[in-house]
Predict the structure.
Amino acid sequence: MLSHVWSSATHGVDALPIEIETNVDSGMPRYTVVGLPHGAVRESRDRIWAALKNNGLPVPRGAITINLAPADVPKEGAAFDLPLAIGLIAAAGDHLDQERLDEFWLMGELALDGTVRPVRGVLPMAMKARSKGRCGVVVPAANAAEAAIVEGMVVYPVTALREAFALFADPASDEAPAPYERDTKQLFRAARQDTLDFIDVRGQENVKRALEVAAAGGHNALMVGPPGSGKTMLARRLPTILPPLTTDEALETTKIHSVSGKLKSEHGIVVQRPFRAPHHTISDAGLCGGGAHPSPGEISLAHNGVLFLDELPEFQRRVLEVLRQPLEEGSITISRAQSTVEYPARFMLVASMNPCPCGHLNDPKRECVCAPAHVQRYLARLSGPLMDRLDLHVEVTPVPFDELDGPRRGETSQQVRSRVVQARQRQAGRFAEHAGVYCNAQMGSRLVQAHCTLDSGSRRLLKMAIERMGLSARAYTRILKVARTVADLDGRDAICSEDVSEAIQYRSLDRDWWHG
């Protein structure tokens, strides 16, 4: 007999439909899987056979041929165990309803006792199944919340192979699982509770303001200060003042975490902006993605969120240089001999560093012990092209004891976020006709000329700053973009001298040695 079962394979962050054709003929017993199966798929035979026998389910005999179509798409991983097992049962006799099988897509890994284990890539599969007109999916119970995010899909969570068998043999039986139900709107409300808040940070009002400007305009930022001054604490609270994820952004972000196997949310969806902080020993493949079978890297996991690089000069220079493409294009392309994969990578880059190897250059309380040559070599680890993509340079100083010991002062993240959202709304209206531009940081030269005009007083102030502070010509456009964001935060259409003055303050670290 011949049976058809549908599943999917992931390519990048999307799913491809896979038709599993199983044919059982009389003759010499054999088991053949064709259609570019990788090792885990070929090894599935032993898992499936043990699961079928241990659950008392029909085990086909004879010459078995399984075709995974389309045949030119590589299939990897143990997620095909469940659909392969159901296909074998269907081909072994009249036990299952083939018409009902055609309405669903299946995915799941099998244990030897028939337990269905969770797999990666369930959300893209459910989205692709909906686009192909299927009515539902059958997935491991641990992945049901993830699949149920897709509206209009019936999700059947299974914990064991016998439940999947009952679903297609006799849906009215006690063993058949019930559809998974959830309230998506309530889920978003429950999952958006922030555990961090800007008000927890004592002092550092100037740095908080700089991060507010960065959040409002989507600007990349660098914080420079001695150890213990609060750089990491501030960076971790940056996502709490960014605009909340939209539904489309949440789905896009969750897809990336799903295919990488890093979806840790108990809700099955990422509804808070990601914050990724890789260690400085990370490789370029770990940061940008790759491997023999490409998977997303840290920059893609930070999509729609924040990528925080602590101790920036400690990262390998070649690792930092691969950031240039995603910072410009919002995506990363990984090429291999067999295929090319593109992963989304639109994130805010926030970095921190010490001002010198010992960390106490310009510290009012501790003396720096570094020789000038050592300081210059330390700073020269950062290339000019990378520094060109950091719009704000912020000096972070130690917090005085009185501010540490005093009562909490300052604004909550929610108060700051409300201003950031209003500024982003102004930018959304401004760039409504420009595809791919969502915030001030993404403006090209033509948009800067159109939306960042200066009056005579502001122009004189900027000219004076460039001449007196030794700012490079590269800083000119960045100052204009930041000034545009400061004006948006204050609700002004025109840029004034105060906006330019504040933007210049965020370039105080722009010296010739950054471009060496």
